[in-house]
Write a structure and sequence with these properties.
The protein has helices at 3-12, 19-35, 40-56, 76-93, 95-98, 101-133, 146-149, 155-159, 170-179, 181-190, 192-208, 227-245, 255-272, 299-313, 316-324, 326-336, 338-359, 363-396. It has 397 residues and is mainly α.
Length: 397
Amino acid sequence: MTGQTQDRQAAAAPHDPGAGGVRAGLAATARALAGKGRDHRIDALRGVALLMMFIDHIPQDLLNRFTMRNVGFADAAEVFVLLAGYASWLAYGRGFEKYGVAVTLKRLFRRCVQLYIGQTIMVAVYVFTIRIWRQFTPVSVDYLEPELAHGMGWVWRVMMFDALPSNLNILPLYIVLLAGFPVFYLLVRAQHSLALLLAGALWLLVNLDPALNFPNWLDPDGWYFNPLAWQFLFALGLSASAEAQRHGGNFPYRTWLAGLCWGYLGFSALQAFPWVLWGLPDLRPFGDAVAPAKTWLSPLRLLDVVAIFYLVQSSLAARRWAAESGVGQALACVGRHSLEVFVVGTILDLYARLIFSTFGESWLLQIGVNVVGLAILFSVAFWLDRRRNVRVVAPAR
């Protein structure tokens, strides 16, 4: 029996429902995917971003004081989009040569449909949950735009992405970026440097004139995540993925470049840390003068996430940790099922906010909401991982 067959059977076999069984299943999955050349750092980093997005989208949650947005300009959204670009090249960039144009375009379309379904589920749950909740207790208007609170005239606008509710605006960005992937791929095939130059020029133009944006019926300023700017981060992820393939999946480590990255992240941490919130002296070098915009992805935020990504992807220690440690494998499992975890996490965010606003923000509720919420997200990821492993091995049996 080959090692690959053993790994597949171990991943598919019934596991002890305890912690030991879960660890065994994750380890078997990690070995099987490693044999296919999968980089667990990408999955683990995406898992971290998904969990932080769940925490950050609950304003009353005290745990969000410890997420990356407190120690840098960028937050989990930038990590999510960069990794979306990186993974898209692995999934579809190589697919054009391996499977052909027709098959790869079909896979791209199917993924966009999946994302659209996830967006539709979240919008429906948000609107109808808040409408029902308001029948029993007051709910602040900022939980749902007033235009969505009454009637059904908003439906076609939301379905056509002419209206993007707050906290439900990142999947539409992902769909737009993924739909534009074939165009970027053609530009890369023609001239890689030109493709990046054009993407960077469009991003720079939007930074010079932020009014260039997609329309949003709910916000006169347009989409919160401006696709014309965020496409550059997606394009950087695509290019980074193609470059990493030429170096065995790793970025070449350069001491001077790592030093620059650490230096910039140190400055970013000093400037972004909420000193006043913690009752500490304000140590920000530039005070309120530096406020990097998120909507059009200001350069300070872009440099922040790029520095983090280089340090992770050039680190062999990070690669071993993601593939071999229990925590790394658990986070990678979450990252492998990003759409399902994101949809469930976003819905849980809504109920957590409603619970806090209705019943208070006591320590008991803080602990309960975070423990239950994170446990549900990990459980969803573990269940999907096991289900996929069984489905993969069943035909071979």
